[in-house]
């Protein structure tokens, strides 16, 4: 991973924009949608977009300690601007590190077609329900598993369902507690993450801890939740622990 994706709150904050023409106007519209105050090069700011990719302008701004995006000049960029799928407050950013804006756009269009218009409403409904969710599942691990189960494919609040927003009260009232402690075994056919089955990819995204044989590649382990515990072992554990645990090994 060459860049760390972040979401910046720019409401009311100054961002420098330089250059002229349609490229500059497109960046201005994007910044204004995010609530930024667009200013010129002489102003104080922490971020700048050089819409014409001018190298001298980039050098001046960097000398002032300002992080810079230079349009069509990935070699000069401290940060890049992703293609965005906007389902406020849900935002999905697709970046290629400046390698191909066209590819990012094509992926955005594919993802856009998959997501219901009411997806943002589901996020808002879940936020509003946080006190009730905490009351229903006081334990943090149980709460996370219940949310995972509700949001799973075919779950009561499956985010790809247009009815998910209206189903939040039913999920709280009727949703079964997510499964108890268990160990799932996954035998990997290869070390390529693209060869993961849908089941394996789903379990990696849900597991609380991942036990794995020494020869399981890091590329596979990277598909697990970032906060999942990773434990190298030579055999499946007899007592894996609370929640969902996985045992990963390579097929002979």
Characterization of this structure:
- By secondary structure, the chain is α/β, with parallel strands linked by helices.
- The protein folds into four domains: 1-81, 3-Layer(aba) Sandwich (Rossmann fold), CATH 3.40.50; 84-114, no CATH class; 119-174, no CATH class; 182-250, 3-Layer(aba) Sandwich (Cobalt-precorrin-4 Transmethylase, domain 1), CATH 3.40.1010.
- Helices cover 35% and strands 19% of the residues.
- It has nine helices and ten strands.
- It has helices spanning 22-33, 55-63, 101-114, 119-128, 130-136, 140-151, 164-174, 198-206, 218-221, and strands at 14-18, 37-39, 47-50, 67-70, 83-87, 90-94, 182-188, 209-212, 229-232, 244-250.
- The strands form three sheets. The chain has a four-stranded parallel sheet, with helices on both faces. A four-stranded parallel sheet has the order 7-10-8-9, covered by helices on one side.
- Helix 1 (22-33) links the parallel strand 1 (14-18) and strand 2 (37-39).
- The longest helix has 14 residues, at 101-114.
- The chain starts with 13 loop residues before the first strand and ends with a strand.
- The model has no long low-confidence stretch (mean pLDDT 93).
């Amino acid at each position: 991973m060459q860049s760390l994706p972040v979401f910046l709150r720019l409401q009311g904050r100054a961002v420098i924009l330089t250059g002229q023409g349609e490229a500059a106007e497109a960046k201005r519209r994007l910044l204004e949608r995010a609530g930024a105050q667009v200013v010129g090069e002489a102003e104080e700011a922490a971020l700048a977009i050089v819409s014409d990719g001018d190298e001298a302008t980039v050098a001046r701004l960097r000398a002032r300690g300002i992080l810079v995006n230079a349009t069509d000049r990935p070699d000069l960029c401290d940060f890049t601007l992703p293609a965005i799928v906007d389902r406020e407050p849900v935002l999905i950013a697709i970046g290629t590190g400046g390698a191909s804006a066209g590819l990012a756009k094509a992926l955005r269009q594919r993802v856009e077609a998959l997501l219901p218009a009411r997806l943002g409403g589901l996020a808002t409904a879940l936020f509003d329900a946080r006190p009730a969710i905490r009351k229903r599942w006081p334990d943090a691990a149980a709460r996370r598993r219940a949310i995972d189960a509700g949001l799973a494919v075919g779950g009561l609040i499956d985010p790809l369902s247009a009815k998910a927003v209206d189903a939040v009260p039913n999920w709280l009232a009727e949703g079964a507690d997510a499964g108890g402690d268990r160990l799932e075994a996954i035998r990997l056919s290869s070390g390529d993450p693209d060869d993961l089955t849908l089941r394996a990819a789903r379990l990696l995204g849900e597991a609380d801890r991942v036990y794995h044989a020494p020869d399981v590649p890091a590329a596979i382990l990277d598909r697990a939740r970032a906060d999942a515990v990773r434990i190298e072992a030579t055999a499946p554990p007899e007592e894996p622990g609370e929640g969902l645990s996985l045992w990963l090994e390579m097929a002979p």
